[in-house]
Amino acid sequence: MVSVPRSHADRWGHQQTASPRVLIVDDDDEVRRLSADLMARAGFEVDTADDGATGWKAICYSSYDLVVVDNDLPQLTGLELIRRMRAVAIDLPCILVSGRMLGRETALDRVIQPGAILPKPFLPAVLMTQAERLLLARMESGLAENWPGTRG
Questions:
Q1: For a surface tag, which of 10, 18, 107, 147 has the fewest beta carbons within 10 Å of its beta carbon?
Q2: Which pLDDT score is estimated for 149?
Q3: What is the band of 70 on the pLDDT scale with cuts at 50, 70, 90?
Q4: Pairing of strands 15-18, 6-9
Q5: Confidence tier at 101 by pLDDT (50, 70, 90)
Q6: Cβ-defined contacts of 121-124 (< 8 Å, 24+)
Q7: Residue % of the chain over a pLDDT of 90
Q8: Cα dihedral 16→131→69→105 (10° resolution)
Q9: What is the full DSSP assignment across the chain?
Q10: Rounded mean pLDDT of the chain?
Q11: 85 CB contacts (<8 Å, ≥6 apart)?
Q12: Pairing between β-strand 66-70 and β-strand 15-18 as defined by DSSP bridges
C-alpha cells in the first residue's frame, strides 16, 4: 500500500501534505460507500460523487491521484468521463468499473490508459491491488514529482 504522505500544491498553489487522493464515482450508494470506506481504511483521502457530471466537476475543481469510476452512470458514463478527461489532457490514472463489461478492445484500452478495467462484482483486494499498481506507476513515471511515497 502507498502510505507515505506526499506534498502537493492545490489549484491555487498552496502546499498541502496529504495521503494519495482518490475520487470514487458510482451511482450505487452501497458500492460507493464500501469502496470509499475500503480506500479510507487503507490510508487514502477519498471524495465521492454519485454521477458522472458531479464527478467531472470534482475533477475540474480538485486535485486527485486516482479516479475509480463506474461505467453505468447517469448524465455522463464512466467512459465518457474518462474521454472528457483525456480530451483536456488530464492523464490521471483511472479504474473503470462495470457490471456490463465493454470488452478489452485496444481502442478502449488506449482511452483508459493510464488505467485499468475492473468487472463488477469485484473483490476489495483486487481494487486495492489495481489502485496501488496505478499509483506506483504514476509515481515512478515522474507525474507525481512532489510525491515521496513508497511502497509500505
A1: 107
A2: 37
A3: very high
A4: antiparallel
A5: low
A6: 122/97, 124/34, 124/38
A7: 56
A8: 140
A9: -B-S-EEEE-TTS-EEEES-EEEEE-S-HHHHHHHHHHHHHTT-EEEEESSHHHHHHHHHHS--SEEEEESS-SSS-HHHHHHHHHHTT----EEEEESS-----HHHHHHH-SEEEEESS--HHHHHHHHHHHHHHHHHTTTTTT----B-
A10: 80
A11: 59, 67, 91, 92, 94
A12: unpaired
- Whose cell is 511502497? That residue is 151
4's grid cell = 507515505
Residues contacting residue 64 through CB under 8 Å, at least 6 positions apart: 21, 22, 23, 47, 58, 92
| Grid coordinates belonging to 145 | 514529482
Pairwise CA distance, residues 126 & 137, whole Å = 16
